[in-house]
Design a protein that fits this description.
- There is one protein chain.
- This protein has about 525 residues and is mainly β.
- The chain has eight helices and 24 strands.
- The strands form five sheets. Strands 8-9-10-11-12-15-16-19-20-21-22-23-24 form a 13-stranded antiparallel beta sheet, with no helix packed on it.
- Helix 3 runs antiparallel to helix 4.
- The radius of gyration is 31 Å and the shape is elongated.
Length: about 525
């Protein structure tokens, strides 16, 4: 190996209690950083960078799952992963115009010889915020405002009696002391992961089959945010004849996200409101907030819902043919079909908030309040649907040969063609709003907007890799890719991406073993190559 390549076995990932694979990569590879900017269920993918930002446009590394580029690996069942490999330098040139930011290779588990092995994993955990800012209580807040008034030579806005009322809580309706973060955050929230797999096989057929379920709840009280996932995977290998092997892979995943109609950022921002505001008049949520965004309300489904369901299919058929009569020559053909269907429905409704005149009480000494619709000006329905698929076909020739146990040669050449199609459709409707919540549909639609689009993509490339070593000490690798991308104009679609790397294992030299044997392995390597990035707008 002459390139900067790092690998990690899947069991190291499985030992980390993370339901998102990208989160589990943090600190596992030199040169790879993983930054998670959100803990929202279903939207917690890490931003990955290999040796920093290397180009314009998208700086994410290329993800290759079981030899197929462009697949999403964040939501793969961690227990299905056999190996993760990161290409960090010119060795990534084998992926040409998509490799400027490095490459991450994911290999899933396959069957093994032996009796069936059944594994069942059940993980129940609870997540909680590590740090929640502590805000001043109402009395402290009012006191600080008085001090500011004093510096500005103004009369204090709160009397000593009012400060005491804020502090002792004897009049919570007129002088409330609301701890918003305590009101809207739960102490902890559950997350559940269940996985079962069956792995085994004999001389002619090997199999690895798994199923998994994942659930994450939101951190807000009465939260409208949660994530559910179900997945199955089947990797089968069959020996058809002495010279022909067939592999068939199938993976299906359903991702179900449910969120509040307010963004997570807004939910947190609304929780930073003034402490001297009441949240509820008994069971009635109070008005008087920015655009009606009472934090105790907008985190729930009282404002509507945002449902997002995705279905992801990854399939692959691989044929390996060992050429009889030519030792070390293998021809491989591969066909992969992927499909992604997404349906998202966002239903926004005004919600009822209540105001109090500060004087009126009922016989139970509860404020007499009046309700009014707040938030959105009218109910609206936004529906989005996308349907896309991709087809990847490649053919490879691999040749391995040793000469006199001193010269070792490996060669691979291949051709790959990838195509894809996608379409999306969105529909938006706004309805007349009534003053009564149960009459929101009175009058029907007032606005309708329908839009849609479709897209096509295609890639064609030729690639190869040649490795040579002498006495397993002096190493040479040459890689090339002649890559054609649909993103460039006619006549300029193709680019040539070569790389060369050299290595010298000094610790195999006689002088080293005689004088410095306490150092088991020492290798010097260097590489040069060119890579590209067509993921630009």
């Amino acid at each position: 190996m002459t390139g900067s390549i790092a690998s990690l076995k899947g069991d190291k990932i499985n030992s980390i209690p993370a339901n998102n694979v990208s989160n589990a990569l943090a600190g596992k590879f030199a040169g790879l950083t993983a930054v998670t900017t959100s803990g929202q269920p279903g939207n917690d993918n890490s931003t990955l960078r290999i040796r920093g930002s290397n180009t314009l446009g998208d700086n994410s590394p290329l993800i290759v799952v079981d030899g197929i580029p462009g697949r999403d690996f964040n939501r793969i069942n961690p227990n299905d992963i056999d190996n993760i490999t990161v290409l960090k330098d010119a060795s990534a040139a084998i992926y040409g115009s998509q490799a400027a930011n490095g490459v991450i290779l994911i290999t899933t588990k396959r069957g093994v010889n032996g009796k069936p092995i059944i594994n069942v994993n059940v993980r129940q955990g609870w997540s909680k915020p590590t740090i929640i800012p502590e805000y001043a209580d109402a009395a402290t807040y009012a006191q600080v405002l008085n001090e500011i008034d004093g510096y500005a030579n103004r009369s204090p806005r709160y009397t000593e009696e009012e400060l005491q009322l804020y502090a002792n809580g004897s009049d919570p309706w007129n002088y409330p002391n609301t701890d918003w973060y305590d009101l809207i955050f739960k102490n902890s929230t559950p997350q559940t992961f269940v996985d079962a797999s069956l792995r085994g096989g004999g001389e002619n057929v090997k199999y690895c089959v798994s199923a998994a379920y994942n659930y994450q709840d939101g951190i807000f009280r009465k939260s409208a945010n949660n994530y559910k996932q179900r997945s199955i995977r089947s990797n089968l290998d069959a020996k058809v004849t002495k010279y022909i092997n067939l592999g068939v892979d199938l993976a299906l995943r359903q991702e179900n996200r449910r969120n509040s109609t307010a963004s997570l950022f807004d939910l947190l921002r609304y929780g930073m409101g003034r402490p001297n505001r009441v949240a509820f008049y008994g069971e009635y949520p109070a008005a008087g907030y920015e655009s009606g965004r009472n934090p105790a309300v907008v985190a729930t489904n009282a404002t509507g819902y945002d449902k997002d369901i995705q279905y992801i299919l990854n399939s692959n058929a691989k044929l390996d043919i060992t050429i009889p009569g030519i030792e070390g020559l293998v021809v491989t053909g591969n066909v992969a079909f992927d499909k992604n269907i997404r349906n998202r429905k966002t239903w926004k409704t005004p919600w009822m908030l209540y105001s109090w005149d500060g004087k009126s009480f009922d016989e139970n000494n509860m404020p007499v309040v009046a309700g009014a619709l707040s938030g959105y000006s009218a109910p609206s329905l936004d529906q989005y649907m996308s349907d896309g698929h991709g087809l990847t076909m490649n053919a490879l020739i691999n040749y391995t040969k040793s000469f006199n146990s001193t010269h070792n040669l490996k060669a691979m050449v291949g051709i790959e063609r990838g195509t894809g199609k996608g379409m999306n459709f969105s529909a938006y409707r706004t309805y007349f709003a009534s003053t009564l919540i149960d009459e929101l549909f009175a009058g029907g639609d007032i606005d309708k907007t329908n839009t849609g689009s479709s897209s096509h993509n295609a890639r064609l490339n030729y690639f190869g890799r040649f490795n040579y070593d002498y006495l397993s000490k002096y190493l040479l690798e040459f890689v090339f890719r002649y890559d054609g991308s649909y993103k460039f104009p006619k006549g300029k679609q193709f680019g040539f991406f070569p790389s060369v790397s050299l290595g010298w294992i000094i610790s195999e030299e006689a002088f080293w073993q005689e004088n410095l044997s306490f150092i088991n392995t020492l290798k010097i390597r260097g590489s040069w190559g060119q890579t590209g990035n067509d993921r630009i707008s």
